[in-house]
From TrEMBL:
Family annotation (PANTHER family): HELIX-TURN-HELIX TRANSCRIPTIONAL REGULATOR, ICLR FAMILY, TRANSCRIPTIONAL REGULATORY PROTEIN
Superkingdom of origin: Bacteria
Record protein name field: Transcriptional regulator, IclR family
GO biological process: negative regulation of DNA-templated transcription
Length: 230
């Protein structure tokens, strides 16, 4: 009986994960294709998810994410209590570099884009706040694994630890380059990682050097502000 309940929960969560591409709504057929579940199963799961506000079924029969997820997401971000500190710094970084700036935190074996300020350029690296990504590949992933407690030893960890930053050149996406630095609090605990990312064809070594200097300034200011709060 316990296994059946767990399986049902995992199927329901898999249904919610279908919206990871950022679409506003999905049809029953699209949910079936992405989840691999039968339509009859999806209808039963969706009914329960609707009842608790995780999904909303529109008049045209398509499904969109419900208000419960927004409420829980807001509570999740509030638990870090960093928005008023991080967002201004992301804005500063975008103004300094013209590229997209993000703040990532680690959650188990994943990293979560907690806050984001997108580049004003028409062609840019776009990612939604709250999106969960693997720790395999990416500048922020390198920082979050190298400076985590206990640190995880990877082929690049020693260099990241020595340099104090991580670089990714087309690792997660062949068209994207990124550079990231750690953010520490007064006790030397890793709170997260600032990252700047852009098209690999324009975010070259010179631009990454400018971004690194700007991020180190932001990380230092955040360290001071976090210290004052403790």
């Amino acid at each position: 009986m316990t296994e059946q309940k767990v399986e049902a929960v995992e199927r329901a969560l898999a249904l919610l994960e279908c919206f990871d591409g950022g679409e506003e709504s999905l049809s029953l057929a699209e949910l079936a294709r992405r989840s691999g579940l039968y339509k009859s199963t999806i209808l039963r799961l969706a009914a329960s998810l609707e009842r608790f506000g995780y999904l909303v079924r529109r008049a045209d029969g398509r499904y969109r994410l419900g208000p419960t997820l927004w409420r829980l997401g807001s509570l999740y971000r509030r638990s870090f209590d960093l928005a008023e500190l991080i967002r201004p710094e992301l804005k500063v970084l975008v103004e300094a570099t013209g590229e997209t700036a993000s703040y990532y935190v680690r959650e188990g074996d994943s990293r979560v884009c907690l806050y984001r300020h997108n580049s004003p350029k028409a062609i840019r690296h776009h990612l939604n706040e709250g999106q969960r990504l693997s720790l395999e590949g990416g500048a922020a992933s390198k920082v979050l694994t190298t400076f985590w407690t206990p640190p995880e030893e990877r082929p690049w960890a020693e260099q990241v630890r020595r340099d104090g930053y991580g670089v990714s050149l087309g690792e997660r996406d062949p068209e994207i380059a990124a550079i990231a630095v750690p953010v520490f609090d007064r006790g030397g605990r890793l709170r997260g990682s600032l990252s700047i990312s852009g098209l690999i064809t324009r975010f070259d070594a010179g631009q990454r050097a400018i971004a690194l200097e700007a991020m180190r300034g932001s990380a230092a200011r955040l360290h001071e502000q976090l210290t004052e709060r403790e």
